[in-house]
Amino acid sequence: MYIDRDLPKNERILLAAEEVFSKYGFEKATLDEIISLADVGKGTIYKYFGNKEKLFYKLVYDRNLPFVERLRQVVAAEQDLPGKLTAYFKEMISFYYENYALWQVIYFEMIGAHYGCRVQYIDDQPVVIPRYSVSAISEEIKESVIRYNKILADEFNVLKEILVFGLEQGLLKEGNADEIRKSLFFGVVMHIFYSLDVVKKTLTPEEFAVIVVDRFLYGESRR
Asked: What is the tens place of the pLDDT at every residue in 26-53?
């Protein structure tokens, strides 16, 4: 990957970080590789971003913010449930097509498995709980895992609002919007993560979105 040396240093670092994190994941990515690709000194990284974790968070936060705003805009422009769902998934799938490698890293950070913990939501708030034989999780790790959970919560809470709209209008069977959201959202995400080469070649984001919404609202039965 070539990065224009005329770009400001902080922009070069973010471009390099995206390349390295997407290729190696968070744990295996090194600041030395990012520094080399961005052609900056190590002190410059610390000046702008502090450390590797803060650099990664800045990268994904800045990418996520306009994405969530677009989700809200396209959903608000539609009046009925099928329109809102289709607009949401078209935008979401398009974003994941382009950012799947980086977002897989976020999901890995979010679940906290490599830290020996898991996340449970209590009163809509993420709580970090130790797994297996791990007796304690540092506050630093807890804060990191919760930060990435909150980034993704911004995405799928837009979907929850659509589902609540459908439930309140009597357009969906009675159910828990949180549980419906989880199965629908993560089902689509996992399909993209595990089958990207196939779905990206065969389905546009709009075609994929239409299929998701059709199956969700009307099922597979011909009757």
From this structure: 888 999 999 999 999 989 999 999 999 8
